[in-house]
Amino acid sequence: MISRHYLDAPFGWLGGLLRRESERRRYQASPYAWLFQPYLGNELVALACFAHHGVMSVAAVTLRQHQLLTSRAWVAALSEGVRDSGAAERRHQLLYNVETTLPLNVESLRSLVEFIGNRPVIGWQLEQRLAPLEQQLRCHLGFGLPNARVDVTKLHQRHLRRLHPQAEQVDELAQALACWQVPSQAPQRALEDATASALLYLRLQRNEVDAVS
């Protein structure tokens, strides 16, 4: 399902491996121990995260055998409940089409990481998008996502450089979707963003297979 050379180390390379092993040992007797175990299945989780003004909209959707399980997606706005957060929550509902708002606490973050599990994660500008989520996970749970991951932005850029070395690199998901003729709707919205990055990943993976054959 996922080519191993697409996987980026979760925290960097050698330092990341050491950190992951340290956290694995630290949590081996906890309910989170299974999150640090290698994943042996064929599913991925596409993630999107938008954060500002004390609210973070997150969407996670499972990709299984080229099928996106959007009806079972995890989608919510997580609110810190700070002063005047109501306006920020309404803004997230409008911008990112997120209807459910949960308090940003241990319970909601545990629900999210249990949904993601130890499956590899993919997404557009993944490290940048996940930075606020990683910060909150470390604050509330004590660890960041240990999952192997694929930044679809870097994957897109590698494919574009190979086929069109002189092409201008783009950082917008909508432009990348248009470049590879991937149909999608409103990728700025949380679930649509995660779904679009998954569709783009599948398109680029198909390019790789075609190039080898």
Put the structure in a nutshell.
The chain has 213 residues and is of the alpha/beta class. The protein has helices at 14-26, 85-96, 106-116, 126-140, 152-163, 173-179, 190-212; strands at 43-52, 55-64, 67-68, 74-79, 101-103, 121-123, 149-151. Helix 5 (152-163) packs parallel to helix 7.
Task: Tell me what you see in this structure.
Strands 1, 2, 3, 4, 5, 6 and 7 form a seven-stranded mixed beta sheet that branches. The chain is an alpha/beta fold. Helix 5 (152-163) runs parallel beside helix 7. The chain starts with 13 loop residues before the first helix and ends with a helix. It has one domain: Ribonuclease H-like superfamily/Ribonuclease H (Nucleotidyltransferase, domain 5, 2-Layer Sandwich), CATH 3.30.420. The protein has helices at residues 14-26, 85-96, 106-116, 126-140, 152-163, 173-179, 190-212; strands at residues 43-52, 55-64, 67-68, 74-79, 101-103, 121-123, 149-151. Mean pLDDT is 86; it is low at 9-13. The chain is 44% helix and 17% strand. It contains seven helices and seven strands.
Count of beta strands: 7
Report the mean per-residue pLDDT as an integer.
86
Describe the sheet with the most strands: 7 strands, mixed
State the fourth-level CATH superfamily.
Ribonuclease H-like superfamily/Ribonuclease H
CATH-level-2 architecture: 2-Layer Sandwich
Helical amount among residues, as a percent range? 40-55%
Main structural class: alpha/beta
| Annotated CATH topology | Nucleotidyltransferase, domain 5
Taken in chain order, the helices and strands follow as HEEEEHEHEHEHHH
Number of helices: 7
SS strand fraction: 15-25%
Estimate the global geometry from the Cα principal axes: globular
Instruction: For the record, give the distance between the C-alpha atoms at the N and C termini, rounded to a whole number.
Output: 17 Å
InterPro entries: RNaseH-like_sf (IPR012337), RNaseH_sf (IPR036397)
Protein name: DNA polymerase III subunit epsilon
Organism: Vreelandella gomseomensis
